[in-house]
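so i finally got all the pieces together for this one. its two components total, 658 residues if u count the protein bits. some of the lines might not be protein, just check the labels. i wanna see the whole assembly predicted at once instead of chain by chain like last time, that was a mess tbh
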Amino acid sequence: MSTNKITYRDALAISMERALANNANVIILGQGVTDFKGLFGTTIGLHEKYPNRVIEVPLAEDSIAGICIGASLNGMYPINTHIRADFGLLVFNQLINLAAKYRYMFGGLFEVPMMMRMIIGRSWGQGAQHSQSLQSLLAHIPGLRVVMPSSPAAILASYEYAIEKYRGPVVMLEHRLLYELEFQDDVFISDTPLDGSRLIREGSDITVVATSVMVLEAKRAAEYLSRFGIMIEIIDLHSISHPDKEMILNSVRKTGKLVVADTSWSAYGVAAEVSRIINEIDPSMLAAPVINLGMQPAPCPTSKSLEDLYYPDVHDLVNAAATLHFNSFVHDIPLPEKQSMTDFYKHFKGPF
Amino acid sequence: MDQSQRLEYEALRIRMVEERIIELYPSDLIQSPIHLSIGQEAVAVGVCANLNPTDLVFITYRGHAFYIAKGGKLPELFAELMGRRDGISQGKAGSMHLASPIYGVIGASAVVASTISHAVGAALASKIKCETDKIFVANFGDGAMEQGAFYESMNFAALHKLPVLFLCEDNGLAVHSKKSERQSFDLATLVQAFNIPFYDLNEGFDPMKVFTVSKSAVGTVRSTQSPAFLRIKTMRYMEHVGPGEDLDIGFRPSGEIDRWKAKDPISNKTLISKHRDQIILEIDAAVKFALDSPLPTIEDLLTDVY
């Protein structure tokens, strides 16, 4: 899949439209999917076109998730949306106790193909309950595919595959900060796009494994550092539950140095998992300790001045990479000014 | 056999299966929790006698009776209980997660109230597909009626007019706690607030009475393609989990079970002696099938994960 100058939001809207048009069994259920804003513009007009299949729901996340499982058991492909991933915490019983286990627990008697779309909020004071990134909690659970698409091409490929080919429950963690961004020369090629990672940029000095919006920050950091002769290799982890371990190992074997940049907290998180992948095979491939960049270990504050300190960004990535490169916290690379990522992405007119 | 005799036979068959489970339990051939339906069999057979094979029943961890009443086979049941390769789910489910899709028994969950919404979702799918030949039964106990999912599911089913029978097997106990410790509402009033027709039976020991009231309730769901609610008072004779009784603990009113048993036709000695030998043969064959079945191996450990 390759796209030219479309936004992340466009890709989501196209995926939803195509899912309904190409598959008579697709239904979309979620709070706000039929209203005039259409889940940040990703479902606008679909209820009018498919009134029985795009369904506004009561505020009852637990049973709506269960209704999706029941509909799936009876031949539908439900797409259940959560305008904030935080509301997805209300479906954990159905998602973890039921959907993830339904096939295994009954010895293969049933399958529950379905999708949860969860949108990670950020900026404009989303605060503690509109900002959480649940990938580590979810990817911990056998039976779930957890994907964080970082570009339109990744969305188009993974959503179509999930809906038309894959027979289990999938969680798509979308990032709100990416919605308005336009991407150029965006390519995603995979036969199994719910599994595996993407090599975004080749480089010889330092490996950056990043998720979601942090992939874009890693690209900015790599551009910046290339001016100083430091070559960054970027891996977009993409499938959080089923990353490409070989890709990570091969890259770290080459560079010996690793930065993990994730959208969530560090404890028991993505960096811990990437470190596990390396340590179980051969920790000696690391020439230096891994640097992890994640959210500060606190609930997300609302005040913008605190929020800007709370998340890591290009400034921290450049510092981390330079520290590893020179094997010293003191180095000569001037750091890019600490600028609010929110401001950058809101005013960024792309394309990426 | 007339309808009443057929129902009593089916109920007795279920009871004897569970009595065999009790008998086998000390041998450790069944190494998982068991939640027995003894005392509640009439509910399962009376309701299921009104259902077609294509109607789907969403059951609970106390699911042996519904599994059997809906047509589930005994050899695969015993093999499943013993964790064998030829169990209905190859030993990965056990007693708490019985299912038999070909007979319309959808998976049982060990989390109270968690399959009620599945019945509603399956009914929604049916409505979208314009099917009108199936109904969906959400089977749960009185404890489930305290969960939010119960209200959420009734609301959705009523709002979208979905062909769901909400079936409450009311044994009055959630593990050891009584309804008076748990519930503040009047059920009939509650159900009526959703404009769902309410059917109620106190004599849940009587298979024929269950059959008759559920015929009406099932008929309403079929003809209106909208939900109905059926509450049947019943009696759990055994402990919440395990092969024993719990009368010695003293948390249940003394004589309550004896009074119920006196009216329970399946406890009737004439009925038992009439059918006993035939049912024993069937159960013996099922147990043999299970014992002859191999145990699953490392080859099975990671199949069907996703």
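The interface with chain B takes residues 27, 52-53, 57-58, 60, 62-76, 78, 93-94, 97-98, 100, 102-110, 142-145, 167-169 of chain A (CB under 8 Å).
The mean pLDDT of chain A is 95.
anyway lmk what u think
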